[in-house]
Amino acid sequence: MRTKWKRTLLTLVAGSLVVGVAACSDDGADAGSALNLDGKKTASMADYKAGTQFKATEPLDVSLLFLDQSHYPLKEDWLLWKEISQRTNITVKPTVVPYSDYEQKRGLLISSGDAPTIISKTYPGQEEPFVSSGAILPVSDYLDLMPNFKDKVEKWKLQPELNTLRQEDGKFYVLPGLHEKVQQDYTLAFRTDELQRLNLQTPKNWDDVYKVLKAIKAAHPDSYPLSDRFEGKSILNLVAQTYGAQAGWGYVKNSIWNDQAQKFEFAGATAEYKEVVGYFHKLVSEGLMDPESFTQKDDAAIQKFAAGKSYAISSNAQNIVNDYRPNVSKIPGATVAKIPVPAGPKGDVLRGSRLENGLMISAKLAQSDKFVATMQFIDWLWYADEAQEFTKWGVKGTTYDKDSSGKRTLKPEIAFGGINVGAPKNLQRDFGFQGGVFSYGGPTELVQSMFTEEELGFQKTLADKKQLPLAPPAPLSEEERERVGLSETPLKDLVTQSTLQFILGQRDLSTWDAYVKELEAKGMNDYIELVNSAYKRYKEKNG
Amino acid sequence: MVTTDPTRLMERIDKPAGPRRTSLDDTRGYRIFRVVNTIVLLGVVAVTLYPFVNIVAQSFSSEIYIRTGQVNLVPRGFNLDTYKLVASDPAFWNSYLNTVVYTVTATAISIVLTTIYAYVLSKHRLKGRGLLVGIAVFTMFFNGGLIPNYVLVNGLGMTNTIWAIVLPNAISVFNLLVMKAFFESLPSELEEAAAIDGLNTYGILLRIVLPLSKAVLATMILFYAVANWNSWFQAFLYLDRADMFPVTVYLRNMIAGATSATSVGAVETNAVAISANIKAVTMVLTVLPIVAVYPFIQRYFVSGVMLGAVKQ
């Protein structure tokens, strides 16, 4: 009986191995040799350049991985679809994936070799796992087919930022959304009526924030003036960048670029990081910040704010309108507003990139006879000025009007965000415009064209901020990535855990050196060495 | 020899062996145990019931009371508008209908396949029985993984059809083993008698065994139906069209979508949180059929699973 079992098992294991190998072997499509475009120009325009309206010379279908938002689920009768096919002669065939699990399905479809041609909503960095499989098109090889994209990169001097996307082979694989200016939406929101009542100035830097919170605490001894949402990651990010560190949402990788020393350092062990941790420890230990800020759900934080138990909370423009104002309205006289992003020891600085989430393109497209036409289509729909206005505002005369000064107004029967509240139709839900898949980035004028006066005021305060230098590319080889992969997450977990312990006072800041030793034991130095060597190697190879 | 009416036969087998202990002669220790037991179990009931009642209360409340954390067990700011709003969304009803169709089809297929498989396995004289059991049990511990499964289902042309939902995982090995144990516990004399009276194998299964198996069948239907009703992953994997999504995918997108946006820090400025009472209403409407059906099938539930537990 036993041997019979063993034999069965062996057969099955061997069988599944064979199947597995067979399934993998046809993935290695060769994309590099496709620069010859003969026979791939079906339906393409011969004289396509920046500013030209793209229209395929014969009807085409293009498949698209579509991220479906639950508050504006895809409808087949959207004006958006109709207009796209009318203007470009191309019909978009969406593969609908719910927002909740988009990344998982995207990974699955790419790995199984079954991905749609255009893979939308990919943030820079998310393409890395797929690079070595050859399933994704190295778009940097084909930018000549994309005049609008090239035009914007040149006009807005985006080349250095674009370089940060390059992989070890010197190419990049994701077509990012392009912004003319750095965008920053998140900051702290305060109960402004309380600031006025206590005669407090709007804080300009993080020391001011501390003082203001302290004053509120003095007035309400039994409250936590700041009870944060986003697990504190937004405010950690904001404080850290003005201290020359990275934390919270900004802590994507374990490495941080030191521009003076011209090398990467371990982000969770710098002196600046310690200062950031110290700042938050001060807030928590003096009872100015709710210790639950780092663990509670967003709803819990909003509830405290709405019930008048806290007076400050992280916010973006939409949070103010949707989460805070309607809910604090039960407190008589309560008002809420964003404060300008506070400055810090490193001055009035902002770390940010003008690149946004964007597209990956399936490598299979390069073998198709519709290659050129599809690339032109992508270039037009996502990067042409006219198309960016179209995917954001819709069709002139139908969904919006534009006066001679260039000011756009939504038709009165169409609502969006805070515009035309209560109108019967909605720009996103009923027409498909302003959707996350198509509409992002672009000229500042367009990006800000739907902002409220209040938000425009906030954006003006950002204009004077100095942008911190960008980290240069340090792309890892596949083997290095595997090595780093082993230590990256444990290191990050240790940093996150210890940061929280330091802030909450469960661990004393005097044990900082011991903490750094723990990081070393987990391979911190090897990690940074690897990143620095990758940086040097890339620099020598690509200048 | 005697009657072939199976229910009468079973009555004889099921007859209790002796008088039960009545509460009069319970020992002191047992009485204390019962009191403690009741208190503990009531605590468990409260803990499990609270979130449910809370969601129901939220579904009838207005948004502002939920957001300020004032809704516990009783609705505040009572309104039915949210129900009207959700009920007026054709996408919701469309996915609801999909769920019903998928659940009914998948459960029917699963019951047929599981019964056939389990009945075969319950016959000890069957050659290669060990291998057949082995093949089934093997899948409990090993599987091909996500991507090979997807490639397989896609290769069979089942993506974007109902078959991708109802065929993979049609047989749950756990359910199969429960059913097999149940069939094994049926007295073989019954089947022999039926055979002598002229029934063939299929006749025995359909006219003798299945009528005696109502309890276990009801349990299996309950298991499969609940699992199918609640399942979302298959649909998420294999369906690319919104009009084919079951209500669970719709619900998950609504709930998880709103929270994951903030957790990754995506600068999704136009991500508006779906209001809390709409979420609550959708949840209530989604679980309602299962909650409504459960009490009626539940009485078979314990007996169905336990019937195969002890071999005779």
What does this protein look like?
Chain A is globular, with a radius of gyration of 26 Å. In chain A, a hairpin with a 5-residue loop joins β12 and β13. Chain A has helices spanning 2-25, 79-88, 102-111, 128-131, 147-155, 159-163, 192-197, 206-219, 233-242, 271-285, 298-306, 317-328, 371-383, 385-393, 444-447, 453-463, 478-504, 512-521, 524-542, and strands at 60-68, 90-98, 118-122, 175-178, 187-191, 255-258, 263-266, 312-315, 336-338, 349-350, 355-361, 400-402, 408-410, 414-415, 425-426, 466-467. Helix content of chain A is 41%, strand content 13%. Chain A has 19 helices and 16 strands. Residues 16-34 of chain A have low confidence and may be disordered. Chain A has a five-stranded mixed beta sheet. A three-stranded antiparallel beta sheet of chain A has the order 8-5-9. Chain A has a two-stranded antiparallel sheet with strand order 6-7. Helices cover 70% and strands 0% of the residues of chain B. Chain B has helices at residues 6-14, 28-59, 63-67, 81-87, 90-121, 129-141, 146-155, 163-166, 173-185, 188-196, 201-212, 214-230, 233-238, 247-263, 276-307. Chain B is mainly alpha-helical and 312 residues long. Chains A and B meet through α1, β2, α3, α9 and α11 of A and α3, α6, α7 and α14 of B.
Name the features.
heterodimer, A: 543 residues, alpha/beta, five-stranded mixed sheet, 19 helices, B: 312 residues, mainly alpha
Which helices and strands occur, and which strands form pairs?
The complex is a heterodimer of chains A (543) and B (312).
Chain A: H1 2-25, E1 60-68, H2 79-88, E2 90-98, H3 102-111, E3 118-122, H4 128-131, H5 147-155, H6 159-163, E4 175-178, E5 187-191, H7 192-197, H8 206-219, H9 233-242, E6 255-258, E7 263-266, H10 271-285, H11 298-306, E8 312-315, H12 317-328, E9 336-338, E10 349-350, E11 355-361, H13 371-383, H14 385-393, E12 400-402, E13 408-410, E14 414-415, E15 425-426, H15 444-447, H16 453-463, E16 466-467, H17 478-504, H18 512-521, H19 524-542
Parallel strand pairs in A: 1-2, 1-3, 10-16, 14-15
Antiparallel strand pairs in A: 3-11, 4-11, 5-8, 5-9, 6-7, 12-13
Helix pairs in contact in A: 5-13, 10-17, 11-12, 13-14
Chain B: H1 6-14, H2 28-59, H3 63-67, H4 81-87, H5 90-121, H6 129-141, H7 146-155, H8 163-166, H9 173-185, H10 188-196, H11 201-212, H12 214-230, H13 233-238, H14 247-263, H15 276-307
Helix pairs in contact in B: 2-15, 4-15, 5-9, 5-12, 5-14, 10-11, 12-15, 14-15
